[in-house]
Amino acid sequence: MDLSEYRTLWLMAMFDLPVTTRDARRQYAKFRKELIARGFTMLQYSIYARCCRSADSAEQTRREVRSVLPPSGQVRLVSITDRQFAKMEVFFGEKRQPTEDLPAQIMLF
């Protein structure tokens, strides 16, 4: 499989969900767990990303996320290429950190 830095996409889910009531907090936790179950990893609070090997895979993941959207709050989904993702600058305080690598590919024979 060609893992071109232009073909491989990162699907990012950014969300701002209410947590003012017990039920709202439960909905927030449920949505977060659904993202993790679908292969997303946390980049920052309320910003999760998943590496998708193709545009078709990214679109399938978008449909899956749409199917578990919470009843209130704001969720944004955006796809960027691996090349764009690699250009991201990450800082902890004033110290620069490396950008996350592509997940290791599992080969099945």
Essential attributes:
109 residues, alpha+beta, Alpha-Beta Plaits, four-stranded antiparallel beta sheet, two-stranded antiparallel ribbon, 3 helices, 30% helix, 29% strand
Describe the structure.
The chain has 109 residues and is an alpha+beta fold. It has one domain (9-93): Alpha-Beta Plaits (2-Layer Sandwich), CATH 3.30.70. It is 30% helix and 29% strand. The protein has 3 helices and 6 strands; from the N terminus they run E-H-E-E-H-E-H-E-E. The chain has helices at residues 22-37, 55-66, 82-86; strands spanning 9-16, 41-44, 47-52, 74-81, 90-92, 95-97. The strands form 2 sheets. A 4-stranded antiparallel sheet has the order 2-3-1-4. A hairpin with a 2-residue loop joins strand 2 (41-44) and strand 3. The longest helix is centred in the first third of the chain and has 16 residues, at 22-37. The chain is flat. The mean pLDDT is 88.
Secondary structure layout plus pairing:
Layout lengths: L8 E8 L5 H16 L3 E4 L2 E6 L2 H12 L7 E8 H5 L3 E3 L2 E3 L12
Antiparallel strand pairs: 1-3, 1-4, 2-3, 5-6
